[in-house]
């Protein structure tokens, strides 16, 4: 099994990736809404 230090490093990487995914999803939603608004206008 992995050392506790390795596990903490993997958890930190995973948490960073999840945070980036959430941020990216928000940015994409804003861009999509802006494009829809521009097309509808």
Principal-axis shape: rod-shaped
Average pLDDT level: 94
Radius of gyration: 18 Å
Structural class: mainly alpha
Distance between the first and last residues' Cα: 58 Å
Keywords: Membrane, Transmembrane, Transmembrane helix
Organism: Sphingomonas aracearum
Protein name: Aa3-type cytochrome c oxidase subunit IV
Transmembrane segments: 21-40
Give a quick summary of the entry.
This protein has 41 residues and is mainly alpha-helical. Helices cover 90% and strands 0% of the residues. The protein has one domain (1-40).
Write a structural description:
The chain crosses the membrane at residues 21-40. InterPro entries: Cyt-C_aa3_sf (IPR036596), Cyt_c_oxidase_su4_bac-aa3 (IPR012422). Keywords: Membrane, Transmembrane, Transmembrane helix. This protein has 41 residues and is mostly helical. The protein has one domain. 90% of the residues lie in helices and 0% in strands. It contains 1 helix and no strands. The radius of gyration is 18 Å and the shape is rod-shaped.
């Amino acid at each position: 099994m992995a050392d506790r230090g390795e596990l903490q490093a993997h958890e930190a990487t995973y948490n960073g990736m999840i945070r980036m995914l959430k941020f990216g999803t928000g940015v994409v939603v804003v861009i999509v809404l802006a494009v829809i608004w521009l097309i509808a206008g």
